[in-house]
């Protein structure tokens, strides 16, 4: 059992950068292109765009808890979207708590999904205690679309104050796409517009005498793909066909993809607003910025409208690191990094940026990306992992394998170098036994490394026994 972390443990640190973590939901990494997301593309040109980043789990609550704990789902115990909060020891060992103890003001604005709230709950009141217990000083909590039908959050209170709440709930009760996008004329009355405005206010009012950590967590582009009607840029006929599309579903697929792209375009503009606010505040050069997503979205490929899969569109995530320590360095600026990255790397990277040591009490699989970028060869990894339920994905530079013991073993094997669209499943075919065994061994090695402990003396004795001394 891990030791309980003392909440009042002090750190002493100076010259710490601000940290802004912009998190989205369902945002595919292949959406980021200069013609479709100019602000994110600019952020990438000023920083590092990690093009082989993966979620620890392709599902909201498991992924988000993995990020803040720096641990896999099998370590946190959060395996689904209806999981209860993880234990108090982990809640007081998040990177937000360590930043807070290190002198940071900490804020969560938007969706967290570290826990769920029952219908009829006033999530605003609960947020002041339950969400702050994860290490936040300031919380403005919003829930997913659909969840605010019968639940109160900061966004529904905003709508209620303007007499607009029932209008939104009526439209969701009998919704279609046109109903939703024409719901409000003011962007600030959409959920992501509300999150943007709250984040801009926080940046404007933040003290310059204390570093801050700000998690701006947008609800979009999680379905339903609704956005302000004035922001419609993409039409269904503009949407490209992919090799994984189902021909008979082309019309529906194109319609939904256009809506998805329009919402992504709105979020891209909001990222630009946040960057502009940091510059206006005069703190941009001293702020580390990360843009990412909890997971991707299949978006109709293979006929799938969901996450929960280990295909690239679902398990792959955008991961752009920019600002402090990166943007002013010609070596890193505009770098396209193809090394394997996990959102478990966020925990050690943020603490390293703040000059705070990793906790000694636990093993965490993530790596400090700042040190890796600066040439620490020990941090190069051969494989990255993702998990959901009883299935585990392992991805190397060339191969991807999905292993599920309850489903009978190896489910998928793809050679991504030859088959980037994952159209040819090589699992259990003759000739691939050696590579399959190697990849399954990587999964086993990772689990043993993170779960088995021994005192040094016992390690040495066991080693002698295992080699026959």
Please describe what this structure looks like.
It is a single chain. With about 475 residues, this protein is of the alpha/beta class. The protein is built from 16 helices and 13 strands. The chain folds into two domains: about 20-380, Alkaline Phosphatase, subunit A (3-Layer(aba) Sandwich), CATH 3.40.720; about 400-465, no CATH class. It is about 35% helix and about 15% strand. α6 links the parallel β3 and β4. α10 packs parallel to α11 (about 250-280). The longest helix is centred in the middle third of the chain and has 32 residues, at about 250-280. The protein starts with 17 loop residues before the first strand and ends with a helix. The model is unreliable at about 1-15 (pLDDT under 50).
Structural class, judged by helices and strands? Answer: alpha/beta
Whole-number tally of structural domains = 2
CATH level-4 homologous superfamily of the largest domain? Alkaline Phosphatase, subunit A
Strand content: 15-25%
| Tertiary shape | globular
Element-level helix/strand string: EHEHHHHEHEHHHHEHEHEEEHHEEEEHH
CATH class (first level) name of the largest domain: Alpha Beta
Strand tally: 13
Report, as a whole number of angstroms, the end-to-end distance: 31 Å
Low-confidence stretches: 1-14
Helix content: 25-40%
- Rounded Rg: 22 Å
Overall average pLDDT: 89
Concise synopsis of the structure shown:
The chain is an alpha/beta fold and 469 residues long. Helix content is 34%, strand content 16%. It folds into 2 domains: 18-379, Alkaline Phosphatase, subunit A (3-Layer(aba) Sandwich), CATH 3.40.720.10; 398-466, no CATH class.
């Amino acid at each position: 059992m891990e030791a309980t972390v003392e909440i009042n443990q002090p750190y002493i640190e100076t010259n710490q950068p601000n940290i802004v973590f912009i998190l989205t939901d369902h945002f595919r990494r292949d959406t980021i292109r200069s013609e479709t997301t100019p602000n994110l593309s600019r952020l990438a040109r000023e920083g590092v765009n990690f093009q082989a980043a993966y979620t620890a789990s392709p599902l909201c609550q498991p992924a988000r808890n993995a990020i803040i704990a720096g641990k896999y789902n099998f370590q946190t115990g959060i395996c689904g979207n209806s999981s209860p909060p993880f234990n108090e020891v982990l809640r007081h060992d998040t990177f937000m708590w360590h930043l807070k103890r290190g002198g940071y003001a900490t804020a969560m604005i938007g969706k967290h999904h570290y826990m769920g709230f029952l219908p009829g709950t006033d999530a605003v009141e609960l947020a002041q205690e339950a969400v702050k217990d994860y290490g936040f000083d300031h919380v403005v909590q919003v829930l997913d679309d659909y969840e605010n039908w019968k639940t109160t959050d900061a966004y529904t209170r905003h709508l209620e104050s303007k007499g607009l709440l029932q209008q939104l709930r009526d439209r969701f009760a009998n919704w279609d796409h046109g109903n939703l996008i024409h719901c409000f004329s003011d962007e600030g009355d959409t959920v992501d517009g509300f999150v943007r405005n709250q984040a801009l206010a926080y940046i404007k009012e933040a003290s310059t005498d204390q570093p801050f950590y700000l998690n701006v967590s947008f609800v979009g582009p999680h379905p339903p793909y609704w956005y302000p009607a004035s922001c419609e840029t993409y039409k269904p006929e503009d949407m490209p066909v992919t090799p994984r599309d189902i021909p008979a579903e082309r019309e529906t697929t194109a319609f939904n993809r256009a809506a998805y792209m329009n919402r992504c375009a709105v979020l891209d503009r909001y990222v630009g607003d946040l960057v502009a606010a940091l510059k206006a505040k005069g703190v941009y050069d001293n702020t580390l910025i990360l843009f990412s997503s909890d997971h991707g979205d299949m978006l109709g490929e293979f006929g799938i409208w969901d996450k929960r899969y280990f295909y690239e569109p679902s398990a792959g995530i955008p991961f752009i690191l920019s600002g402090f320590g990166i943007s002013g360095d010609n070596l890193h600026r505009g770098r396209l990094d193809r090394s394997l990255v996990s959102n478990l790397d966020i925990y050690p990277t943020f603490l390293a940026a703040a000059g705070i040591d990793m906790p000694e009490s636990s093993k965490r699989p993530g790596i400090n990306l700042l040190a890796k970028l600066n040439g620490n060869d020990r941090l190069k990894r051969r494989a990255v992992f993702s998990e959901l339920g009883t299935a585990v994905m392992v991805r190397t530079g060339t191969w991807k394998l999905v292993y599920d013991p309850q489903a009978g073993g190896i489910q998928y094997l793809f050679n991504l170098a030859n088959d980037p669209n994952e159209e040819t499943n090589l699992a259990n075919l003759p000739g691939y036994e050696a590579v399959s065994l190697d990849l399954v061994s990587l999964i086993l090695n990772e689990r043993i490394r993170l779960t088995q402990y021994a005192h040094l003396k016992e390690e040495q004795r066991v080693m002698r026994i295992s080699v026959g001394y």
